[in-house]
Amino acid sequence: MSRASFAVSSFVRPAALLTACAVVVAAGCVQRRMTIRSNPPGALVYVDDYQLGTTPVSHDFVYYGTRKIRLVKDGYETLTVRQPFPVPWYEIFPLDFVTENLIPWEIRDERVVDLAMQPAASTPPELVVSRAEQVRLAAGSLPPAVAQPVPPPQPIAVPPPAPAVPLPPPQQPLVLPPPQGFEGLQPPRQNAPAQGIPSLGMP
User: Fold this and answer.
1) Which domain holds residue 63?
2) Within-domain flag for 165
3) Which of 32, 43, 150, 189 is 20 to 30 A from residue 116's alpha carbon, by CA?
4) Does residue 112 sit in helix, strand or coil?
5) What is the pLDDT of residue 18?
6) Count of structural domains, the chain
7) How far apart are CA 108 and CA 61, in angstroms?
8) 33 neighbors 52 (Cβ within 8 angstroms)
9) How far apart are CA 121 and CA 53, in angstroms?
10) Is 179 part of any domain?
11) Cβ(55)–Cβ(34) under 8 Å?
12) Which residues of the chain have pLDDT under 50?
């Protein structure tokens, strides 16, 4: 074998091996997809409490099992179901290794869930009040509320005005007689200096 042919063969073998490994790894695949439809359509979909969109809606999933599906739409009762997604036979161990890695084509696992919603019934106010009372009694927090009649307002008694008390007549000023021995004296004038005090302005 020549040196050139040996170099080519030494290059081709690893490349062929890598290509074969890539083909084997990318050959088998299982595509899992769920589609949720509702009657009527347009309901908001929650799967395991994650919002997916409005019906009809499709979404890929990885694991099998039971999923919680909740539909919400105005004018309809909220619908919650536990939907099982059983494992198919080709995904049971050890066959899952073959279907996931060795089969040279894609396997599509489509799951369709059809759900019917019920219109919301109008609840009478009396039923709402009775349910609230039942919840309150079950909680044990407060005693049941009993409607007490409101008494009519009582008139306010205003006492009669008190009778007028007569005032005593005004008293006459008391005039005392002058003391004895001072009958002939006149009171001093207002601007005259007091008697017995010499004027300070004149020598």
Assistant:
1) 29-116
2) no
3) 32
4) strand
5) 47
6) 1
7) 12
8) no
9) 25
10) no
11) no
12) 4, 6-8, 11-12, 17-18, 20-27, 203
